[in-house]
Backbone:
């Protein structure tokens, strides 16, 4: 009788190499939770744009460990991220993740939900609507940007609506703050027990902010005014490093003010989109990552509104003969 | 050692050959170059020249509204035609400009749709009978030409078709040109979406206050919905823009300068 290699071995050999990589050392986000306040852990994202190199790990994710279990604020950009986050949380506590909050409907904040299907997943009602409407498109777009890191990722809808102002959990008194300046529905969470403010993407720090769904920079600035009035000790921005000195909110506000002024003045001077995209960056923001890149994106999102405001309705002239 | 010298010689020869070919070899390495050159330029003489400025962002944040500026002013000779196209769009032609008067620069800014990452080019026919080519590559996730116009989902345009906004801006820099900007409500449907026929502005003419034509334009469906056209002008205090779409609707608007 001839010896034949077992079928499973053949199958394994025929696996395409990216799959090998996925099951080997590849696609490791390297998530390292850091204790930043009592019971409060942060997994800090890179100050970069989405890429095949970072797999979408550009976002801050935080969690609060209590006797009643873990409360997680945002779940990251992919199923793999969510699964690795779950493992990372299990390294620091044996308590289960009980509550998950999605701060808003941008893909890097909710596409890790799949890994927490056994928890309650909460979001603002409008955020739930946005995820139901745009989630698949956003996921598809992220596949295009970061590639195979996204394998297996599907939209897992938040199943609970946040409409209360207070959320008591495991001895922590959490104030829920519903804003809208970044996407129309943006959640911030103030832990009154520890003084930690989880600001979501209403605050960017040392990383240029993004504007694709903002209802208006003025709306965003009003939100920041309310955030600035809160009593907090430490702020976790949606993107960028922790802020213990109260610098992140003013930086975000100064940047929005500059962007608004730039777009208005440019439209009033009759500049084209390309000319605005090439405007020199304000030296005040020299240390902020991705300044040029995000300016190009913001001009694309916002400049048409400013242009239209700067133009005047014209009288129809009588059509000339050809 | 001898091998090494031979290699060096070969490399040098190759470099020389490349340098000689540089002016006629597509710097953007696009697979469609030869086909589109024949289509748009025929057998005419041409060369690539950085003085033909084509500006666009490195990536298309919104593939239905990509800003493009073409400017042939730096050629410093009269220009009779400028053809603008995107190599990898299903409809490649974007616009053809016929500058007719010194008071308007051989340039145009507008927004276009891109279907995928592509080279965007301008070919400029100058007085010496040579086409001068500029271009740039843009990265894009895609879908700009086969996405339905926003107008399809919103009946706003039906009662506002052809409405225009405009303004003549004073020079941004002293000694610089003035600028005229026009925006017109029009769906600019490409005909590439199921059940939505092509419906777009195909002709335009910019005139001075007396009706003397300054520039004539032929437009194609890749021009974005609700077109925004910007012209650079000198010594003009009033302008008229006339447009006609492929359904025979014509539109015209007059705009006066900031003093007028």
Residues:
């Amino acid at each position: 009788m001839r010896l034949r290699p077992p079928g499973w071995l053949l199958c394994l050999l025929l696996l395409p190499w990216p799959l090998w990589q996925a099951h080997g050392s590849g696609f490791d986000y390297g998530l390292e939770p850091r204790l930043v306040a009592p019971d409060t852990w942060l997994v800090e994202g890179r100050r970069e744009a989405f890429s095949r190199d970072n797999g979408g790990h550009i976002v801050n994710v935080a969690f609060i460990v209590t006797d009643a279990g873990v409360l997680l604020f945002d779940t990251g950009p992919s199923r793999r991220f969510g699964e690795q986050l779950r493992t990372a949380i299990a390294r620091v506590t044996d308590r289960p993740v009980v509550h998950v909050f999605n701060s808003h409907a941008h893909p890097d904040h909710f596409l890790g939900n799949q890994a927490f299907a056994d928890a309650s997943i909460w979001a603002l009602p409008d955020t739930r609507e946005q995820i139901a409407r745009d989630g698949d498109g956003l996921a598809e777009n992220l596949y295009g940007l970061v590639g195979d890191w996204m394998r297996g990722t599907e939209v897992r809808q938040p199943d609970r609506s946040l409409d209360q102002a207070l959320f008591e959990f495991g001895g922590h008194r959490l104030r829920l703050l519903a804003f809208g300046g970044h996407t129309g529905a943006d959640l911030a969470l103030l832990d009154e027990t520890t003084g930690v403010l989880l600001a979501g993407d209403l605050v960017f720090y040392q990383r240029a902010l993004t504007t694709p769904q903002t209802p208006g920079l003025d709306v965003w600035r009003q939100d920041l005014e309310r955030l600035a009035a809160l009593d907090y000790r430490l702020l976790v921005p949606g993107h960028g490093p922790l802020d213990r000195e109260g610098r992140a909110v003013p930086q975000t506000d100064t940047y929005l003010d500059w962007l608004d002024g730039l777009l208005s003045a440019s439209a009033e001077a009759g500049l084209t989109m390309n000319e605005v995209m090439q405007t020199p960056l304000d030296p005040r923001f020299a240390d902020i990552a991705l300044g040029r890149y995000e300016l190009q994106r913001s001009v694309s999102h916002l400049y048409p509104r400013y242009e239209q405001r700067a133009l005047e309705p014209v009288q129809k002239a009588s059509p000339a003969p050809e | 050692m001898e091998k090494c010298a031979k290699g060096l010689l070969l490399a040098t020869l190759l470099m020389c050959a490349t340098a000689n070919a540089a002016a006629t070899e597509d710097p953007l390495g696009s697979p469609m170059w030869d086909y589109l050159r024949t289509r748009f330029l025929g057998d005419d003489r041409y060369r690539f020249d950085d003085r033909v400025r084509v500006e666009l962002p490195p990536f298309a944040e919104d593939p239905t509204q990509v800003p493009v500026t073409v400017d042939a002013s730096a050629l410093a000779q009269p220009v009779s035609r400028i053809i603008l196209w995107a190599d990898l769009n299903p409809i490649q032609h974007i616009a053809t400009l016929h500058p007719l008067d010194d008071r308007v620069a051989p340039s145009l800014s507008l927004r276009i749709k891109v279907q995928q990452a592509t080279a965007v080019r301008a070919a400029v026919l100058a007085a010496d009978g040579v086409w001068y080519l500029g271009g740039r590559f843009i990265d894009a996730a895609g879908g700009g030409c086969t996405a339905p116009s926003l107008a399809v989902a919103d009946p706003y345009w039906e009662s506002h078709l052809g409405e225009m906004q405009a303004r003549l801006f004073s020079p941004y820099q002293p000694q610089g040109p003035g600028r005229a900007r026009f925006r017109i409500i029009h769906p600019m449907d490409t005909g590439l979406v199921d059940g939505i026929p092509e419906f777009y502005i195909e002709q335009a003419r910019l005139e001075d206050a007396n009706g003397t034509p300054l520039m004539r334009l032929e437009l194609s469906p890749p021009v974005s919905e609700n077109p925004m056209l910007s012209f650079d002008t000198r010594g003009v205090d009033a302008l008229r823009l006339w447009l006609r779409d492929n359904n025979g609707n014509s539109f015209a608007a007059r705009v006066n300068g900031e003093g007028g």
Notes: Helices of chain B lie at 2-21, 33-41, 150-153, 156-160. DSSP finds four helices and 16 strands in chain B. The two ends of chain B are 77 Å apart (CA to CA).
